[in-house]
């Protein structure tokens, strides 16, 4: 059986563009290292990521839609003076978990939730926390597991 190349969709929230770039760099490096392909779409805020993934997954079932093997969610949520950031973080995670469990989607979680910007940089840089790269690796792991359980090779 000829193995299809893995194709992922990276959905990145661009609220903090420099941090988003760092997360994307790590994810792209991890995906490239595995010889997979990827597309990137952007949204404004982290809470939009689950919706974008759901729309992309649904579009993949249409004749002209692109079918993705998995999704990488990237974004940054920095605590403010109110509890809004907690709501954003919780609802983003809940939305991604609902998609992962309910639709059996392979989703790598690279949404950084921190108290201050310096913490976000530490987690985002590929040379430090590499949260984007780790999210891509987690997604690729689940894609591989799905293929293995379906009787396909990685």
From TrEMBL:
Reaction catalysis annotation: (2S)-2-hydroxy-3-oxobutyl phosphate + 5-amino-6-(D-ribitylamino)uracil = 6,7-dimethyl-8-(1-D-ribityl)lumazine + phosphate + 2 H2O + H(+)
Binding site for 5-amino-6-(D-ribitylamino)uracil: 46-48, 76-78, 109
Gene Ontology MF annotations: 6,7-dimethyl-8-ribityllumazine synthase activity
Keywords linked to the UniProt accession: Riboflavin biosynthesis, Transferase
InterPro entries: LS, LS/RS, LS/RS_sf
Pathway: Cofactor biosynthesis; riboflavin biosynthesis; riboflavin from 2-hydroxy-3-oxobutyl phosphate and 5-amino-6-(D-ribitylamino)uracil: step 1/2
Active site: 84
Family affiliation: Belongs to the DMRL synthase family.
UniProt function note: Catalyzes the formation of 6,7-dimethyl-8-ribityllumazine by condensation of 5-amino-6-(D-ribitylamino)uracil with 3,4-dihydroxy-2-butanone 4-phosphate. This is the penultimate step in the biosynthesis of riboflavin.
Protein name in UniProt: 6,7-dimethyl-8-ribityllumazine synthase
Organism: Caulobacter rhizosphaerae
């Amino acid at each position: 059986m000829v193995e299809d190349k893995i194709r992922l969709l990276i959905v990145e929230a661009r609220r903090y563009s420099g941090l988003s770039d760092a997360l994307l760099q790590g994810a792209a490096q991890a995906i490239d290292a595995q010889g997979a392909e990827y597309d990137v779409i952007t949204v404004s805020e982290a809470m939009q990521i689950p919706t974008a993934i759901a729309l992309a997954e649904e579009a993949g079932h249409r004749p002209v839609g692109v079918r993705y093997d998995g999704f990488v969610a990237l974004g940054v949520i920095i605590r403010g003076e109110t509890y809004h950031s907690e709501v954003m973080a919780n609802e983003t995670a809940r939305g991604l978990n609902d998609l992962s469990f309910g639709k059996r989607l392979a989703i790598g979680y690279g949404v950084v939730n921190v108290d201050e910007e310096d913490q976000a940089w530490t987690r985002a840089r590929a040379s430090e926390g590499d949260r984007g790269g780790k999210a891509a690796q987690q997604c690729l792991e689940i894609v591989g597991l799905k293929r293995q359980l379906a009787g396909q090779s990685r």
